[in-house]
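Before drawing any conclusions, I looked closely at one protein, both as residues and as discrete backbone shape codes, quoted below without any editing:
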Amino acid sequence: MINYKERLTVDRELYPSKDIETTVESDRGRIFSSAAFRRLQKRTQVFALELNASIRSRLTHSLEVAQNARYIARTILDELKKNDLKTYGLEDMENAFISTSEMTSLIHDIGNPPFGHFAEETINKWLKINVLPKLNSFESNTKESNDLKNILAKDICNYDGNAQAIRIITKLQRLNLSYFQIIAVLKYTRGAFEDKPSSDNPLNYLKKKPGFYYSEKDLVKKIQTTLNIKAGHRFPITYIMEAADDISYLTADLEDSVEKRILSLDEVYNIIKTECQKQDEEFLLEIIDKQYEKAKRNEEPYQFNMFFTFLRVTLVTNFVKHVSNIFIQNHEAIFEGSFNHALLEYDKQSKYYKALKVLKHISNKYIYQNKEVQTLELQAYTIVNSLFNIYKPLLELETDDFAKLLKGEEIKCFISERLIKRVSSKQIVAYKNDIEKLDKENIEQFNILEFYFRVRLIIDYISGMTDDFALEEYKILSAIK
């Protein structure tokens, strides 16, 4: 039975509100006031360290996703009203449904590192080479300790922006959001410490990427229990956020590529037209022809803006209606959180999915493979890799020495004494809070877990940087003017 009052509740870790409307507005205020949210304005979408403010950053991308999510949520509610919202426990909950869709979308990328997804790969490669040998060197004379090391080894080498988002919201920024707002951000339901599921697993899509770390597993479990969400299942509104994100990518990268003069407007039109003809995609071809012809009637300076405005509006309107229908047709499974598909990819025979494939292929071929974009990725690799190398001495310390360091006591490693002063105090507090919960009597497991949380501390600091701060920190510590 679908009853959103079971999912949209006033529960939160501290100081819960008395009613759902206050809860929603409180979440909204906390998110907009968050430093982690503001940092998105200086994070890469596609083009790193971009000075042209017209090019999308993570923040402007997130604003577009949030608008798409509002549109989808409102469209879904308008359809559900035909059946009476009481049927779904949504009477007096419209604002909560729409606002949660919007806010989830605003912070869906809050865990992404500087320089985008390429940095995720860089971080995981560095951790595998530099951290795993140290983790494996810890003494472990019991099965429990060995099992723990194996679990943490998987977890540490599975850095992911989605999982980092949960950590930022709950541990680093301590936003104290409502439980439903936290769990709505959980796009993928597999722990980073868990194995990737087999292709025949009924939740294999939902678990294809890590959604949370070992460090947050107890909180995720607590929220799932409180909101009656089964392990491995999604929160229903998360499907809306995911669809809104997918829709935002339809034209955004192409638009930015023209703004960057990687492609011209005519080239974009001809590339899409050629690809549509190759794949026999009439739906997108018809839209492209119509909007290109309409844009060309305008004066030269306005053709670019008019083309992408017309194209975006037409595509968004069509795709929002499509994903809203998929949501409603599969409402029971979506509410349960077992619907094992992205809304936009569910019907692979639909004209919408085929259009999506065409546009994705074009972005991969003509934008992501572009020499300038790949040069930026190589620069990002150098910066992120170098920063981890610079802070590596903090991970080489013995457990006791690192404890002394945090107390301000003198240790033999003078480099570490200076490095620790550069790490954010909020991240150090999160580390200390995690360490305080450990069993200090079990020396083997304490040392293993202390190192794990210390690794998390360094990851938190470097992955939390903006693009320009990471570049500046790299220059300063590498003595580059």
